[in-house]
């Protein structure tokens, strides 16, 4: 990548400076609401999971996991194409459209109470498209508005802080509506909030235009969108995810499960072929990413996969074995919010004083330790022992890895690729959450002896959490290699520089 590709565009440097203080606060608040509403949709499903399942007559844990996995699936798989649409049509348009789309399908999710669980899962899946439009374009709006520096670091940290607090508030409101009123109001209230955010976004978000040169014909648009790459990539990710999340329900003995998995892998292979050899405008600008970025994305995949397993089985453990009501479990989940804010502020400061590799090592360690603490927690132990400590540790994994990775990619790609750069991180995060639930479910059903007794069910839960510990450990290993590689490259560069300086001195 050329050096001039990394220089901030002049308009990007001055755009934030044109805001009045009130408009800047509102701008940051509305953009952070994109993160808030996306992550809230995970929380609102966790706390009342059994209440919603009982209303449909569903108790199968494999089906219940789809209530959350279906949403994360579409968030993770459609983020890339949504980011490309933002690059072509404008981040503001896609961002506000995301709120409107989320409002529509939140309304349908609530109305599904009059139908069946299939409509509810369908609505949850389509809700994910709204999140897929919101997340990458929110990050792109911030990346294109603020120039690299301490201010941008802190804004990204604030954006990251919205994640744990939105998940927390989602669980609280989901529990309040479901336990004290009626669970559909959880989704209808989301629809109202989304419409308010869309209206406010129209008022405070500026239009950011790029000179997107492409043939205005349908064929030209499809090439600019890299439609072939999008179909292969989305198709492959969806099929692989469906195979892994369906296998715990019907078993790997069903031929269609492994056929779907094989076809999905072939689609993903076709995606890479299209991106490298066919596409005129690749969906992912691989030329803009260094090997270091690949290490970071690998760490993010392991860490957030570990988190996806943790958050699902943490709630299952609290409600099934400690018999916590949705409201009590939500109250016990409260430490995640303030600790997430502290973690984000500290991370914003650390990013200006510490290597990204060390930040990733610390975040992967937090993910791993959090899973260890809940995996070994006795059923009848007091909440204030391992469980409370776990909730103090796990936010550091979320809020150190996400801001560091998004900031690194935002600074490593030129302004016109901000949407795609942001998309890649959020794709990895959300897809890892969904796919990891399939891995964990497979482990659970193979170790729980059919789940015929509470002891067997608990054994399955712990087996899934051990899987999460393994993913976190792999993330620690990758981040350690990345950090070591950074030190080694710096030492070799310094050695080469000293030798060149010595040769120049000897020449005189």
Automatic annotation (TrEMBL):
Compartments reported by the entry: Membrane
Q: Where would I find the Major facilitator superfamily (MFS) profile domain in this sequence?
A: 27-491
Is Transmembrane found in the keyword set?
A: yes
Q: Where are the transmembrane segments?
A: 63-81, 93-111, 117-142, 154-181, 187-208, 220-244, 256-274, 295-315, 327-350, 357-377, 383-409, 421-443, 463-484
Which species is listed as the source?
Answer: Penicillium olsonii
Family matches, as PANTHER family: MAJOR FACILITATOR SUPERFAMILY MULTIDRUG TRANSPORTER MFSC, MFS TRANSPORTER OF UNKOWN SPECIFICITY (AFU_ORTHOLOGUE AFUA_5G09940)-RELATED
Give an example GO cellular component term for this record.
membrane
What is the protein name stated in its UniProt record? Major facilitator superfamily (MFS) profile domain-containing protein
Question: What GO annotations for molecular function exist for this entry?
Answer: transmembrane transporter activity
Task: Supply the alphabetized keyword list.
Answer: Membrane, Transmembrane, Transmembrane helix, Transport
Q: Which CDD domains does the entry mention?
A: MFS_Amf1_MDR_like
Q: Report the InterPro entries cross-referenced here.
A: MFS, MFS_dom, MFS_trans_sf
Q: How does it sit in the membrane?
A: Multi-pass membrane protein
